[in-house]
Design a protein that fits this description.
The structure is a single chain. The chain is mostly helical. It is built from seven helices and no strands. The protein has helices at 2-6, 15-21, 26-34, 40-57, 66-72, 78-89, 93-106. The chain starts with a helix and ends with a helix.
């Protein structure tokens, strides 16, 4: 998991690249993650989304565009990032940031 977290921005990060790095088969890697109730691909995606959510929550990063925040976590297509973020958190990245800013102003 530390290996994955350190490479979230790498667009080539995949379950296969993780398995290769650790010199295990893809099937074995999938088995390890399955025992924890997930898959390597899902875990990578969820970690990327969590990092983006954290960065969107950070007022110190408001100077970064939403697309750049997505890119910093390995989402190199803004529309794909936005769709995955909305599916996971129920709002678009833009709306998520806007709500945080509203709370800061009026909270």
């Amino acid at each position: 998991q530390a290996h994955i977290r350190a490479r979230l921005a790498d667009p080539d990060l995949s379950p296969m690249s993780v398995a290769r790095f650790h010199k295990v088969s893809l099937r074995y890697l999938q088995k390890i993650f399955h025992e924890r109730g997930t898959s390597p691909a899902r875990w990578i995606r969820d970690e990327r989304l969590a990092r983006c959510r954290s960065e969107l929550n950070d007022p110190g990063l408001d100077h970064l565009s939403i697309a750049l925040i997505g890119e910093r976590s390995g989402f190199h297509e803004a529309s794909h990032f936005s769709r995955l973020f909305r599916d996971r958190y129920g709002v678009s990245p833009r709306e998520y940031r806007k709500r945080r800013e509203s709370v800061e102003l009026f909270g």
